[in-house]
Amino acid sequence: MQPTTRAVSGASPKTTWPPVAVPGQAQRATTPLPPADPSTQPTRAVGSPSPGDRLTATAGQVTGSGDWVTALADRGPVTDPGQPVGPVDPGAVVPATEGADLLTELRSVISRYVVMPSTEALDAVTLWVAATHLQPAWQHAPRLAVVGPAKRCGKSRLLDVLHDTVHNPFITVNSTPVAIFRSITDHPPTLLVDEADTIFGSVKVAEKNEEMRGLLNSGHQRNRPTTRVVGPEHKPTKFATFAMAALAGIGDLPDMIMDRAVVVRMRRRGPGETVRSFRSRYDTPLLHALRDRLAGWLVPLTDAAAGMEPVMPVEDRAADTWEPLVAVADLAEGGWPQRARHACRVMTAHEEGQDQDTGLKTRILADVRAVFAGLGDPDALSTESLLSALNADPEGPWREYGSSGLTPRGLQLLLKDYGISSANRRFPGDTQRRGFARNQFADAWARYCPRPEPASPAGR
């Protein structure tokens, strides 16, 4: 899928953000993406991967060619269960490119140290790491929320790998908010926050970390500085907050973070799932070499990336969060544009409804629609008939909604925010009962739970 780009005039070392679009403004011209300048590629250190090296992950072994493969093979066997390398469609044939090869190599390396919960999550983390090297190009700085239900789910190990592959990592442990504020420049670091659940804990803990909370909340979008009084003259000074950040913690983080994040829900390794041990002495040089190659490919494309408007499979805030990842995939070409959009659709859909209150309010709309459809889409249903069908669904949440299942009062409260309420209506047999008309739900169905459209091959 070819990305859409804004026209980029001239070649400057620093990206200049275009003005805000004005309604009625003429359509922007498009320019092809410039190739990476070979002269900007870093010199290869001994034992680091070269452009000609190939690394392939299969269960129990490392195959390929080059010093990079030899170095990894010396570290012992590795298993990569359920995490194939290649395009989403195994039968698809896509041309290899430098960017696609680098992303595939990074993806394979990540899977050696951490068992990811899904192939989509592995793709997302790979693209997120690459996107950190183009932060000056992005309008939004997506968070990477690495959460799990308990300890020993691989969260901290994933941060170890991120630390050695992202752009300019900044570990926030024991760092004061002032130090972090002063570290964020036009080329911001990548913030790495372990045990993030301790920052957003009780009210007392939250008050203690209010500065950090504010930074993480405002830094998702460009041009959201924070103002502090500094110096003996108490001069108001603005500090930039825009920076990509990875946060790891037990349990969900606050909604304001989760809603702006690519969420990876880690889990403990199961029987037969093994990973390679991480030793900085051996692994860090190899990861740094791969990081440098990523930067050598991506940094020359900063202006081109800033002008991209990739076609997104989601909308609104989810599109803002995922756009840098999809843009990197479009720059890489090969099978990555399809991979990125597939991961975006699957992971975004999974997160919808994770919040219990919001999820139930969306779920009730979908389930009411299913009840109407199952009864032949009548013009109206009595409250009694609707509740009977909802509470009878063995896979639905309604029979356990309260001590007696979903009641008329509970149904009214769930539908209140949509402006839907029951009323006296006439039914066959000239009976009159409280109920709902089908057309009352039409607008809410279209807005909050539209029926998914079949995905076309070009849209994947």
From TrEMBL:
<feature type="domain" description="DUF3631">
    <location>
        <begin position="265"/>
        <end position="448"/>
    </location>
</feature>
<dbReference type="Pfam" id="PF12307">
    <property type="entry name" value="DUF3631"/>
</dbReference>
<feature type="region of interest" description="Disordered">
    <location>
        <begin position="1"/>
        <end position="64"/>
    </location>
</feature>
<dbReference type="InterPro" id="IPR022081">
    <property type="entry name" value="DUF3631"/>
</dbReference>
<feature type="compositionally biased region" description="Polar residues">
    <location>
        <begin position="1"/>
        <end position="15"/>
    </location>
</feature>
<protein>
    <submittedName>
        <fullName>DUF3631 domain-containing protein</fullName>
    </submittedName>
</protein>
